């Protein structure tokens, strides 16, 4: 028992000597486990820079079609439908880029644009006519935009009155085959684009990882665009031939320019 007390007193005396020998001005270093690691802001700042870069890119890419919309409206007094679709898509992408913080939700951004375009296809299938505007199918609006430089259709009725009408509008009103083509193809485009949006939602809600969602989403979108564009071009070729024949027949029945007495 005496030996144990001696060992304890020796240990305490050695600690006191060590404490007294330490200079009061010497800094006390905390243990390494207690040191605070400096805040690493590089990850947050790089993420912020990436979001700002995406937003700036979307804004810059939307400026040319927006300027074209203004130019066409000022020069020709009608709305550039294709330009409006592109501008709206860029604006929607920019908004979704800002508000979406979830990675899987961000994957839905591009498909949301296709869903909105699909909705526009369906809305324009409604045969609505008011004193302010007349709703025409999106396919017709695209065709009208591409054929805007074509000369108008002119004819003389049986009373000798001269008429002139924009070519695509004349086709839509007088050639039923072209009118059905616009409605049917618009419905197909709307359904396919909406299907792409639904497929993306199913993949996001499934157990697929982000890389596979991106891969399968790109494959689906590219397949849709290639197949639908090819099908549209093929259908347009046959519709053009049919419209030419129907237009010729219509002029034979309704154009009296060469049959009225001078």
Descriptive terms for the model:
single chain; mainly alpha; disordered N terminus; membrane; transmembrane; transmembrane helix
Description:
The chain crosses the membrane at residues 54-74, 81-99, 111-128, 181-203, 215-239. Residues 15-37 are annotated as: Disordered. Keywords: Membrane, Transmembrane, Transmembrane helix. This protein has a two-stranded antiparallel ribbon with strand order 1-2. The chain is built from 9 helices and 2 strands; from the N terminus they run H-H-H-H-H-H-E-E-H-H-H. Helix 2 (42-76) runs antiparallel to helix 3 (81-99), helix 3 packs antiparallel against helix 5 (109-123) and helix 8 packs antiparallel against helix 9 (210-254). By secondary structure, the chain is mainly alpha-helical. The protein is 71% helix and 3% strand. It has helices at residues 2-21, 42-76, 81-99, 103-106, 109-123, 138-146, 167-174, 176-205, 210-254; strands spanning 153-156, 162-165. The radius of gyration is 36 Å and the shape is elongated. Mean pLDDT is 75; it is low at 1-8, 14-25 and 32-44. Strand 1 and strand 2 (162-165) form a beta hairpin.
């Amino acid at each position: 028992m005496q030996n144990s007390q001696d060992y304890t007193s020796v240990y305490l005396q050695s600690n006191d000597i060590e404490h007294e020998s330490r200079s009061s001005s010497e800094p006390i270093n905390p243990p390494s486990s207690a040191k605070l690691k400096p805040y690493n802001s590089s990850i947050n700042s790089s993420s912020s820079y990436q979001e700002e870069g995406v937003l700036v890119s979307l804004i810059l890419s939307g400026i040319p079609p927006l300027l074209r919309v203004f130019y066409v409206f000022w020069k020709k007094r009608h709305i550039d439908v294709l330009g409006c679709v592109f501008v709206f898509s860029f604006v929607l992408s920019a908004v979704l880029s800002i508000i979406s913080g979830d990675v899987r939700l961000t994957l839905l951004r591009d498909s949301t644009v296709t869903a909105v375009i699909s909705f526009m296809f369906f809305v324009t299938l409604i045969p609505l006519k008011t004193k302010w505007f007349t709703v025409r199918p999106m396919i017709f609006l695209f065709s009208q935009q591409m054929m805007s430089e074509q000369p108008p259709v002119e004819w003389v009725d049986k009373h000798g009155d001269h008429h002139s009408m924009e070519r695509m509008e004349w086709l839509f009103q007088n050639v039923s085959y072209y009118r059905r083509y616009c409605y049917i193809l618009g419905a197909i485009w709307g359904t396919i684009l909406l299907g792409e949006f639904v497929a993306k939602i199913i993949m996001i809600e499934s157990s697929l990882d982000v890389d596979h969602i991106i891969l399968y989403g790109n494959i689906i979108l590219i397949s849709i665009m290639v197949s639908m564009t090819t099908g549209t071009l093929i259908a347009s070729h046959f519709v053009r031939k049919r419209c030419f024949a129907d237009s010729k027949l219509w002029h034979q029945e309704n154009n009296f320019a060469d049959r009225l007495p001078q």
